[in-house]
Backbone:
């Protein structure tokens, strides 16, 4: 049996308040938002933004995220270098937190976004519940990658004792914030209803 | 309630587009989408009414966390204190203008706007009188939620502590604890404001005024 979707009934569900509107109107009668049955050019936008995030991810990892001045000597530190230093200091737990938030989550999120786009583009889906779970995961975990950027902000503001000890922001901090922001926007541009449209066509349900 | 008053009796699931009939607005219930299992709504009057006290708490905690030192750092007899605003301001002093602005948005501006929206929407729930600002506040509230990063910043604080604990003495200030409280109050307030119920109440109150 075909699921009774708003689109199959010739209607449009509002993405802001979820009210079902007739297909002929442009604005939601309940909240006034602009209506669209599916986000226009959802795949192209998600692809393009994911690509931008991948490009930004390169300087974010190669360039220093902080410069440290300690007793007159100064040195740069990258995201991955920071994880290694924490590990060597014996803070294995915190090293893992940073590794997950700054390395694993962004890479996993970019991979999931590409995978979601591919599933829709090829019009083939296995279990839609599993794919929908991945989509919800990207929406939920993305912002947690900002931890490292906040660590930079805190160290720079707190540890300002001139030549004794000071932290300065590196260029990777902005690139990395860019990765997190762009992937958050990319996830928001992906229309999850497309996944269920595919699953409807593949007669999975 | 009839369709003519404007309140939605049927909603389309935002994740899979299935049309789902809503239960009565006063009923305490979690409405899940039968097709994709997305939670469409958590209705219930008591739940909605919890948002106002939590919102007031959040507002007070935000003011507290902006007014006192957040953390202090001491090494070789020299001390430096940091407030919440300075976490963004110091980046500006070091020339990272964009990063400074972003941090300001994520840790102060977005949470402050969210608190204001929570207060506007939750006081509407008590009065049930429609006003122009409520619809805008509702849209802003749900659109801005993921850009407020209070809890992410707090994890950042604890990571920073570990990073510098070996180099110096770090003390935590009143503001940090207020900010931690803010994260709970804000999450609680937003969780009790059910999006579908609010839009239905708004439509009802407008229908009644006509
Ligand atoms: Zn609407
Ligand atoms: Zn659904």
Residues:
């Amino acid at each position: 049996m075909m699921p009774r979707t708003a689109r199959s009934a010739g209607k449009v569900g509002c993405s802001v308040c979820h009210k079902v509107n007739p297909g002929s109107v442009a604005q939601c009668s309940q909240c006034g938002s602009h209506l669209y049955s599916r986000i226009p050019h959802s795949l192209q936008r998600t692809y393009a933004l994911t690509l931008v995030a991948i490009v930004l991810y390169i300087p974010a990892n190669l360039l220093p995220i902080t410069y440290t001045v300690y007793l007159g000597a100064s040195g740069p530190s990258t995201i991955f270098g920071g994880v290694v230093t924490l590990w060597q200091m014996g803070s294995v737990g915190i090293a893992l937190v940073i590794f997950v938030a700054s390395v694993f989550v962004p890479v996993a999120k970019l991979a999931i976004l590409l995978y979601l786009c591919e599933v829709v583009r090829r019009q083939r889906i296995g279990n839609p519940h599993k794919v929908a779970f991945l989509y919800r995961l990207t929406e939920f975990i993305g912002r947690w990658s900002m931890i490292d950027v906040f660590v930079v902000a805190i160290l720079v503001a707190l540890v300002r004792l001139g030549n004794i000890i000071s932290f300065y922001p590196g260029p990777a901090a902005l690139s990395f914030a860019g990765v997190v922001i762009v992937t958050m926007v990319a996830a928001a541009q992906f229309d999850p209803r497309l996944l269920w449209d595919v699953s409807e066509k593949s007669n999975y349900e | 309630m009839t369709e003519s008053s404007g309140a939605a009796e049927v909603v389309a699931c935002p994740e899979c587009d299935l049309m789902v009939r809503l239960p009565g607005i006063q009923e305490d219930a979690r409405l899940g989408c039968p097709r994709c299992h997305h939670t469409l709504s958590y209705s219930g009057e008591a739940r909605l009414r919890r948002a106002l006290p939590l919102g007031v708490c959040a507002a007070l905690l935000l003011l507290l966390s902006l007014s006192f030192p957040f953390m202090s750092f001491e090494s070789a007899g020299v001390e430096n204190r940091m407030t919440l605003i300075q976490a963004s301001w110091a980046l500006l002093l070091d020339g990272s203008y964009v990063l400074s602005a972003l941090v300001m948005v994520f840790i102060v501006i977005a949470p402050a706007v969210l608190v204001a929206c929570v207060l506007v929407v939750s006081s509407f729930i008590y009065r049930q009188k429609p006003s122009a600002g409520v619809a805008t506040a509702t849209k802003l509230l749900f659109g801005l939620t993921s850009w407020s990063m209070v809890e992410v910043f707090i994890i950042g604080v604890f990571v920073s502590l570990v990073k510098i604990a070996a180099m110096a003495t770090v003390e935590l200030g009143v503001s940090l604890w207020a900010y931690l409280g803010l994260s709970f109050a804000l999450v609680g307030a937003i969780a009790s404001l059910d999006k579908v119920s609010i839009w239905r109440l708004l439509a009802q109150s407008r229908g009644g005024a006509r």
Q: What stands out?
A: Chain A touches chain B through 69 residues (CB under 8 Å).
